[in-house]
Amino acid sequence: MTDAILQQRERGLLTLQLNRPDKKNALTRAMYTQLAEALEGADADADIRCVLIQGSSECFTAGNDIGDFLEQPLSDLDSPPFHFMKSLINCRKPVIAAVAGAAVGIGTTLLLHCDLVYISRDARLRMPFVNLGLCPEFGSSLILPRLLGHAKAAELLLLGEGFTGEQAAAWGIATEALGSGEAALAKARAMAERFEDLAPGAVQVTKQLMKSVDREQLRQVIEEEGALFTQRLRSPEAVAALSAFITRR
Ligand code: COA
């Protein structure tokens, strides 16, 4: 157990904090596994009403650890990032994200599977998959065109254009954009605490209804994206782009 994921439980709220500040909270295999196990535990624990995922008030996450991608490229759909995203997508309890600073790669993708997202206006989001020789993941190639239309989603996914927290809220990727990272974290926490007073059965059934229409299609898309993503990680295009990041200094 490392302290790169801090877990705090207060009454019915489980907070999972990404805590690897020297690497902009880039997610390692061990961090994904800890997050996955915590989410599965929360799902099975009747006393947990809500899960809050956050970074610091300065940084959410720089996405997958790029060194990990090169040293241990994902081999199958049970690899730690898949385990984590499966546990997030299948979590029956409400999951809230509090986002400030950078939210890159899976740091943006995972927001598409949270129920509520509070973000600082100046947060910097980006899905640079093509720029890294990769392709979209975990349903983003389905969800983003639906949310934004093909033309806008293409700018984000084909060109890897960055966008702000303010834009994320305007486009429906986030619930609300706030004036600072501290304000985003405080609002997310206040909203998470609201679930203490709501009937947990009704909350879960409502979430299930909201998610059930797309479940099968999403599963198929995630499988297809996952197979292509793992192939692409070994492609010369990706190896060159990922190595360039590692050796950039
Ligand atoms: N994996 C591994 N290390 C990472 C990382 C990642 N995804 N993102 C950042 N880091 C490391 C940097 O290498 C640097 O380490 P060092 O101090 O030992 O050299 C440290 O975190 C700080 O990063 P730096 O780039 O100096 O911070 P910044 O504030 O200038 O920029 C980001 C922050 C997030 C915009 C930038 O780090 C970035 O673009 N990271 C890559 C994100 C990415 O492409 N992720 C997608 C993977 S699919």
* Structural domain tally: 1
Ligands and ions found = coenzyme A
On the 0 to 100 scale, the average pLDDT is 97
CATH architectural label: Alpha-Beta Complex
| CATH topology label | 2-enoyl-CoA Hydratase, Chain A, domain 1
Q: Summarize the main sheet.
A: 6 strands, mixed
- CATH class designation: Alpha Beta
Note the total helix count.
11
Question: What string, H for helix and E for strand, traces the elements in order?
Answer: EEHEHHEEHEEHHEHEHHHH
- How much of the residues is beta strand, in percent? 15-25%
Please give the number of β-strands: 9
Coarse shape: globular
What structural class is derived from the secondary structure elements?
A: alpha/beta
Q: Which residue ranges are poorly predicted, with pLDDT under 50 across at least 5 consecutive positions?
A: none
Q: What strand order characterises the main sheet?
A: 1-2-3-4-6-9
Helix content: 40-55%
3D architecture notes:
This protein is of the alpha/beta class and 249 residues long. The chain has eleven helices and nine strands. Strand 2, helix 1 and strand 3 form a beta-alpha-beta unit. Helix 1 packs parallel to helix 3. The two termini are 31 Å apart. It binds coenzyme A. The site of coenzyme A has 14 residues, from helix 2 and strand 5.
Question: Could you give a quick summary of the protein structure above?
Answer:
This protein has 249 residues and is of the alpha/beta class. It has eleven helices and nine strands.
